[in-house]
Amino acid sequence: MGLSRCLYIGPYAVVEDKEHLVKVSVRACSSATCPAAKPKHTYDAVKSAFCPACGAKVGLMEIVVGTRLDYYEVMGETERLTRAGEDDNDTIYLIVNEGDAYEKRDFHYDYGTNEDLSSLSPEEIIWFEQRYQPELKALKDAYGDVQIRWGVHYYQW
Q1: I want to staple 51 with a disulfide (CB 3.0 to 4.6 A). Which of 29, 71, 112, 125 is the partner?
Q2: CA-to-CA distance for 19 and 48, rounded, in angstroms?
Q3: Any idea where the domains of the chain sit in the sequence?
Q4: What is the pLDDT of residue 22?
């Protein structure tokens, strides 16, 4: 099994993927005194009408669970932006996933590449915001704050 390394130099987006609390309906024991109800036990797999632990009626109840958004569901079919590696923290870095999207240069560099970056300008950030406007809107709708930055990312997969 090999290891691929990439150096990305250019504009990127940053979003914070915090845990969100959502209400879901589950089949659960309706008894508040059920000995097995800590935490609330559910019976989605068992289609019984009564709790096997206490005999109380099983019905639909709303519970609150913590969940994270799935970046790939938020973005849908588009793959014009991609995650710069998979981190265990709450920050998602999104880089350009189109090699020839920016006509002046490629943002991805392989190991050992030499590139003159002395002529960089803020126009790359403006280009990024304009070209990826639909993706940035979807990110803002899902995650809230979206920051656009310019910098260097080294990642491997």
Answers
A1: 29
A2: 32
A3: 5-18+69-156, 21-67
A4: 78
